[in-house]
Amino acid sequence: MINVLCFAHLKEQVGKEQVELQHNELTVRELLNELNEKYSIHTDTLIVAVNEEYADLDDMIQSGDTVALIPPVSGG
């Protein structure tokens, strides 16, 4: 199981703060595609962290990992 944490407006779009996905492993890209299909969230501007480290699209996510989806931040 992969635990996905949603921050800011994403938790409103998804309807909860965290989502559990039943996968043994998948890439960050595959995870984002699945979330886009299930919840219609735009994933192209998200920052993704796996186990508190920034991840690239081709990085692998394993069962037991925690993924954080961080939307862009603006302000001054």
Give a written overview of the molecule:
The structure is a single chain. With 76 residues, the chain is of the alpha+beta class. The chain has a single domain (2-70), classed as Ubiquitin-like (UB roll) (Roll), CATH 3.10.20.30. Helix content is 24%, strand content 34%. It has helices at residues 9-14, 28-39, and strands at residues 2-6, 18-21, 25-27, 47-50, 53-54, 60-62, 66-70. The strands form 2 sheets. A 5-stranded mixed β-sheet has the order 2-1-7-4-5. Strands 3-6 form a two-stranded antiparallel sheet. Strand 4 (47-50) and strand 5 (53-54) form a beta hairpin. The longest helix is centred in the middle third of the chain and has 12 residues, at 28-39. 18% of the residues are buried. The mean pLDDT is 93. Keywords: Nucleotide-binding. Belongs to the MoaD family. It comes from Bacillus lumedeiriae.
Would you count the extended β strands for me?
7
Estimate the mean pLDDT confidence: 93
Structural class: alpha+beta
Give the second-level CATH assignment, the architecture: Roll
Organism: Bacillus lumedeiriae
Keywords: Nucleotide-binding
InterPro entries: Beta-grasp_dom_sf, MoaD_arc-typ, MOCS2A, Mopterin_synth/thiamin_S_b, ThiS/MoaD-like
Family: Belongs to the MoaD family.
